[in-house]
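MODEL INPUT / OUTPUT PAIR
PAIR INDEX: 1
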Amino acid sequence: MDLRILRRPVASIFSAKPQCLLSLNATARRHESSYRRSKQRLNVKPDPNFVPSNGAPQDHIIFNPPSSSPSVFHTPLKFLPKDDKRRKLLAITQERLNALSHRLPPPVNPKQLKYERHHLSEKDVAEIRRLRAEEPEKWTRLQLAKKFNCSSIFIGMITEASAEKRDLEREKLEAVKARWGPTRTAARENRQRRIELAKRDE
């Protein structure tokens, strides 16, 4: 009786539920066929524009040599004989470059300032001071420099922040310093000490 009970689950797998095995085999076969179909569809031929044709005529030469050391065959102009043909070729090349020189843009001067100098009048200076005194949060030095087309250093020279503004900035700085740890505090102190020694040339 016990053997029948043990054999019953095994027999039920092969007799009562054969569709389970078929479904597993079908799933495996579908997976394999799907892989084959995907591989065939992805095997796309390259576009003919990227494939060089043997019969197409080539009307240009691609010359892209690798970088190398100077060659003895590249003789400077100073060492060429007077009747050498390369002198004539170099002269023709120089004439072509001179003809194209007027098409080049003007040289860029990095020191050239983007704002005008000495263009503000007394009325403009008074307006800058009024805006700075009335709304210091809105009209900062940078905003005033953009509005009047001048440098922020000039704005700082002709205006002065109010006492409330200076106290507010000092409080912000103290709040930032309060969050410093011992390492950063020591580093800032050493930096300040080095600045003082540099000022005294020590």
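PAIR INDEX: 2
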Amino acid sequence: IIAPSLIKSKVTDFFLQLIRENMLYRLESNIVRDDIVGLLSKYVQSGRKETSLNAGGVCDMTIEEVTAGAGTFLIAGFQTVAYTITTAAYELALNPEIQEKVCTEIEEVLNEYDGELTFEAINSMNYIENVIFEALRIHLVFSIIDRRCTKNYTIEPVHPGEKPVHLKEGDCVWIPAGPIHHDPKHYPNPQKFDPDRFGKNKPFSLMPFGIGPKSCLGVRFAMLECKLILVEILRSFDIVPVKKTISSLPTFKDTSFGLSRKTLSTNFK
């Protein structure tokens, strides 16, 4: 479910066992709750060893598959959001002029909504969204996106001396999102933290949540979480560097899956 370099296997096993026991207890006791475990439990067909489609065209899943799905929602949605908020706060601490622009936007938007931090207010904060996307561009959570070919395809050569690449149905393709995010052809001065490089529509070369129909299904919720937490922090505090704050953060070139192993130290003032 999650690469072992991100989360220790004993942690993953603990959560999966917890979810499995909870799900089985609900099924046996006929307990219905409106949460992720309850929603996924609807697709469990007890006793099946393989996934199948029922008469209504809905996928019946095994208890193991549903447990894995719930575990993915729980674990994948925690580490990635925490890392994104951390790197965004880190960049804001190192770039006080950008932080000031974010605070100005927060104040202006909240004035329009009578000081209420509503869903609509959060969605109208475009600059802080660009800050988050720029943090994700530089400090990508996953530097590789994998896809599987659904049909034979040939990538024709673009430059002299190159050879065509022949892909077969079923081949696994790795898309180097990290290098693309740091390619000067797409992003001039790529090491510079510059939220103003983005407009309302983000370029196709920006892929922190993947690309295409198989992109992250939790992207909107993740962005809402990041924006909400950063707004709440910046309404009351300035994010400032401290003595332990490193001047530059390792990028995809020397990290695992894009996640930095360095401790990021900032302070709220």
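PAIR 2 NOTE: The chain has two domains: 4-46+62-138+182-268, 142-175.
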